[in-house]
Amino acid sequence: MGETFSWWGILSAIGVLTGLGITFGALLGMVSERFKGEANPLVEQIDALLPQTQCGQCGYPGCRPYAEAINQGDAINKCPPGGEMTIHALADLLGREPAPLDGEAATDDSVAFIREAECIGCTKCIQACPVDAIIGAAKQMHTVIEDECTGCDLCVAPCPVDCIDMLPRAKPLSQWQPVFHTTPSLIVSDRASARSEHASL
Amino acid sequence: MPAYDFPGGIYPPERKSRTSQAPLCAAPLPSRVQLRLRQHAGNPASPCVAEGDTVQVGQRIAKREGMVSANLHASISGMVSHIDDEAITIDADGLDKWQMLSALDWRTASPHSLLERLEESGLAGLGGAGFPTHVKAQVAGHHAIDTLIVNAAECEPYITADDLTLRSYPHEVLDGAQLIAKLCGARQIMVGIEDNKPQAIQALQHVLTEQQHPIEVTLKVIETRYPSGGERQLIKKLLNRDVPSNGLPVDVGVLCHNPGTLLAALHSVRDGKPLVERIITLTGGAIRHPGNVWVRLGMSVAELLNHAGLSRERLYQVISGGPMMGTPLFTLEMPVLKTTNCLIAATRDELPPVPAESPCIRCGACESVCPEQLLPQQLHWYNQTEADDTLEKLHLFDCIECGACSFVCPSYIPLVQEYRAAKQRIRLKRIESAKSEHAKHRFEFRQARLAREEAEKQARRQARLAQNRQSTTGPHAGPNTAPVADLRSLRIAQTAAKAAVKKAEKVLARATEQAPNQRHDDLEIQLATAQENLKAADTRLAEARAAVPQKEAP
Fold this sequence. Notes:
The complex is a heterodimer.
Chain A: H1 2-34, H2 42-49, H3 63-71, H4 83-94, E1 110-114, H5 124-128, E2 134-135, E3 143-144, E4 164-168, H6 188-199
Antiparallel strand pairs in A: 1-4, 2-3
Chain B: H1 17-20, E1 25-26, E2 32-36, E3 46-47, E4 54-55, E5 60-63, E6 72-73, E7 78-83, E8 87-92, H2 111-120, H3 133-142, E9 147-152, H4 161-168, H5 170-184, E10 188-194, H6 198-210, E11 216-222, H7 231-239, E12 254-257, H8 259-271, E13 277-283, E14 291-296, H9 301-307, E15 315-320, E16 327-329, E17 342-347, H10 365-369, H11 376-384, H12 388-393, H13 404-408, H14 415-473, H15 481-514, H16 521-547, H17 549-552
Parallel strand pairs in B: 1-14, 9-10, 9-12, 10-11, 13-17
Antiparallel strand pairs in B: 2-8, 3-5, 4-7, 5-6, 7-8, 13-14, 15-16, 15-17
Helix pairs in contact in B: 2-3, 4-6, 5-8, 11-14, 14-16, 15-16
């Protein structure tokens, strides 16, 4: 009698616990599916800090591959378009020491310009452009969509007739940044002369 | 007097009597005007005349571009002599021939035709911000508006343009207010005016007692304190409503308009006259005949000030706008804009140069005068290290740039200038990051396209190979173990790609629903990328299936 009773007890305990396990397992599974957070692994965060010029100067075919390489332990100072700012941001994110930039710093924001009279329509630049910013067809003139160009200059080298120039990009007046000295580095007499220069209409 | 109040504020010397007692007159016709394409908030207008064209006053010379923009009209008759990216120049022929639109009766005209007229006339807020009036009226379509506020506070020192407008045209301004109130469905109109304009108050009271208005008008006289003319401050003072951070007055059911804008709105509807002239206060110790004048837009500041008797020897600086929020001009070869409400030709004694800046002593004077209850000191501190995230957390973008903090600072720190620079810096950063985000999506799309093309090429090659093999050796099973394992992963990849397409479609649909008028380039590119990926996965799967047809068959 006692034996059957204990069997029953054991079975019911196993049943209840299995039931609980299944119920809560299903519940947790559902919840994790339902309230799944936006995944933002480290590669994404690194990629977000890169300037997305897709210029390949780091030795990788684009910013995303470089972000993956940094995540694997590559150096953080290989991005000339990003410059010091990007290196510091990456150093902050990854807790590494900021290193001086490897290579020449990019000068100003530039844009590719095709001298259309000289273009022979070879499509080499179109194939080189990482962001599809050049339109044209074989034996037809090519041209650059200014708003889409990232100024990576990857199209300059493949051009067989050297008809692509990198021109400084025109900044609209609305994007003017006031030159404003917050650092009180001027001594008072300098300041007075600077002011009178401004004031002379 | 209303019982409500806004925090902070200052009492700068008013210096209004010099111009408020002179009669309103008209400036002479300019011999040449330079009409800037961007005289309003938003996108610049695009020219619709060519060099050499003859134009009449009121003829449209530039068309609005995009959602937030305003038309531009010739302000003198003559010949278009020059057009560039910034402005259209017209040489006058001296005839002053007008081209008017048809007159409308605002009481009977349909709201649609009124809106169209406001848009056609190129109206923009004449108080200083220059927000296109028809856009403001349309914004009211999405929100319930119950009150129209006529912002006649004119709290900045020196300026008396609104004062003179109200004294000279009280009927017209109130009719214009009725027009706009009818258009946006407001149930009441409130005129907020500071108690330093007794003549304007009297004129308004006179009109209110003798004339019946369909929508109830209340005149509220408030204490003279800077910056009571800020819309957030005026709404707080008149209605005790707080405009939320990053919000607009429409969020609390209020629309604010400047008396000058209302007058121009009435002129454009009643008389069919586009915005080609405005009232400007000419003042300062360096001119002999201060006062308010009707000026054609685009007239040169130098010509205008010379007409008012500018003495170059006494002139120290010219400020466009008020002394608190205006900008000093570094050249007088500037045209008058739709937003130019005042020109101060100041002598050195009047607006002396600011003494040298010294370090912040943490006195807290700026905090007690800030009408937005920000922490100017903290903003100053974090701006020095360009800690932009912290600046945004401290509500930098709620700063109305009134300049009260700079006015009281005992260390003469140019606080408001710092905040303006910081705001612009953050705005540029946002533009930059939006651009890089866009480039990233285009790069990803290209990668997907190349992968799809590669997969298709591979498939074609396989098909050709299979055909060759069939024709030479007959059916041949070949080593099937590797493709089977591949098949499963390919099917998983295809399902994932399908899910990605669905997700991208959903996101795009939601965004389009929320903001139907905006373009969602990046989302569209993301969808196209997902579609390319799906195509590549489909091709690869089909290719693998073709290689092992017997295993796939159920």
